């Protein structure tokens, strides 16, 4: 089990330069994520959700403010942060076991320890028996399980998920949401999910961060005080989902008191499998 990390974001701002002019992308973001907490981030396209995730993982730099993991300022990528993208990004010439092992390339572990960790994470994502299968032999959902295992095999302190199920069909997506909740609970890891799907955000998150666009800033943080496993058909779940959706229309249901802030994108991609070849079911 990984040691969960504490992520502190204070006065975080980010801008790009476009045609010689500054383009603010994020403005004065304040957010603290506790060890083992699952936070979902939702917002319209262009609100800076994915930029925020890329800053946390260390793929973007040049920000203003404070961005710290366990008290240390984030600068560049590190094995203490793992990320899963919408596209699984598996290497087609490597099998499941080899793709997951890539996550340990710079881990400095003995070969036996690496093999044991890979086997443990194959079991964690439910892919026993598929160790020797290649990406073109897997369904989209199974490929994303491999990507999740690869992100977790280092036992990072924070798992970042950027629209990980956005390219999947509805049934596969629902199944993997259940699986992700189970996996994150089993690992005891801190997790941050960026998604356009409000139902997914409520189903998975302990809190839902709603962002406003241009420049991106936190509009509201909604706690999700529902027991796990969550029932999408329950009235309480529907009320919370409608509450979050109300932020996008500018209307919050009267029956729900507003929750104020405590301190105040990914492109669509497909799991590219060759037209020929065969697939296993999820």
Automatic annotation (TrEMBL):
<dbReference type="GO" id="GO:0005524">
    <property type="term" value="F:ATP binding"/>
</dbReference>
<protein>
    <submittedName>
        <fullName>ABC transporter ATP-binding protein</fullName>
    </submittedName>
</protein>
<keyword id="KW-0067">ATP-binding</keyword>
<dbReference type="InterPro" id="IPR003593">
    <property type="entry name" value="AAA+_ATPase"/>
</dbReference>
<dbReference type="InterPro" id="IPR003439">
    <property type="entry name" value="ABC_transporter-like_ATP-bd"/>
</dbReference>
<dbReference type="InterPro" id="IPR027417">
    <property type="entry name" value="P-loop_NTPase"/>
</dbReference>
<comment type="similarity">
    <text>Belongs to the ABC transporter superfamily.</text>
</comment>
<dbReference type="Pfam" id="PF00005">
    <property type="entry name" value="ABC_tran"/>
</dbReference>
<dbReference type="InterPro" id="IPR050166">
    <property type="entry name" value="ABC_transporter_ATP-bind"/>
</dbReference>
<keyword id="KW-0813">Transport</keyword>
<keyword id="KW-0472">Membrane</keyword>
<dbReference type="InterPro" id="IPR017871">
    <property type="entry name" value="ABC_transporter-like_CS"/>
</dbReference>
<feature type="domain" description="ABC transporter">
    <location>
        <begin position="7"/>
        <end position="238"/>
    </location>
</feature>
<keyword id="KW-1003">Cell membrane</keyword>
<keyword id="KW-0547">Nucleotide-binding</keyword>
